[in-house]
Each structure stands twice: as structure tokens, then as C-alpha cells.
Amino acid sequence: MDFNAGEIVLLLVLAIVLFGPEKLPELARKAARLLHHFRRIANDAQGRLRQELGPEFADLELSDLNPRSFVAKHLGPDATAELDDIAKELKGARTSIDDALHADGGAADDDGSDAGGDQVAVPLAATVRVTPFDTEAT
Fold first, then answer.
1. pTM score, whole prediction
2. Integer Cα distance of 90 and 80 in angstroms
3. Per-10-residue mean pLDDT for the chain, 138 residues long?
4. SS3 helix, strand, coil % of the chain, rounded to 5?
């Protein structure tokens, strides 16, 4: 979240109008205490995570848990560019598949017969494979 100077001034003016100059210092102190409390909780959680993971993960940063930054750190920035290209290709393929599945096979007459001729609409359920799920295995 990035604030510029104009947004900060607007927030200050809005706070003065809403709360008044008498209550504003107390609210600022409460907000600072709350922010300090949240930072302490986050630092404690990060310290516990490092402690639980052990010395081999001493250099672990929370940003490393993001898959994109993990790939960039371990495989280099070229790998993320390649992954972006692959993602674009997959989105394009998915769009074309969706278009093909949802394409109108011809206008149906009132009696339900297909006016498109030889085109036969294949139900979506017939084209989707369902992976078996074993409840006992989990």
C-alpha cells in the first residue's frame, strides 16, 4: 500500500473533521499502540517459524514463500519470464477451448430439432474426466 502526500493530507483533514482536534491525539496514540502490537505479533510469529524450521532455514524470508519469488530466487529471473509466457499460452488455449465448448451448434427450432444440420452438440459432462477420490486414503 503506497500513499502519496496528497492522500495523507486528505486523510488528516478527514480525521480532523470526523473526530475533532481534541480526540485526534488520543486516537493517534491508540493507532500507534495497535500498530506496534501487530508488528510484535508478526515478528514473534516469524521468530517462531525460524526456530521451528531449524538452522538450515535461518535465511528464510517470508517473501520466499511466494511461488513467483521462490522461482526467481532459485532459477533466476529468466525462468519467471518463461513461466509468464507459458501462463499466457495456457490462458489462450483455455479461452479457445471454452469458446469451442460454448459455441452455438446452430439455432434450435421450436420443436427442439437442430437447424444447424450435421452439427451435434456434445454435453460438457461427456468431455470432462472425473478423477477418482478415495476417502479412505486421506
1. 0.39
2. 15
3. 83 87 88 95 87 79 75 75 84 84 56 51 61 74
4. 70, 0, 30
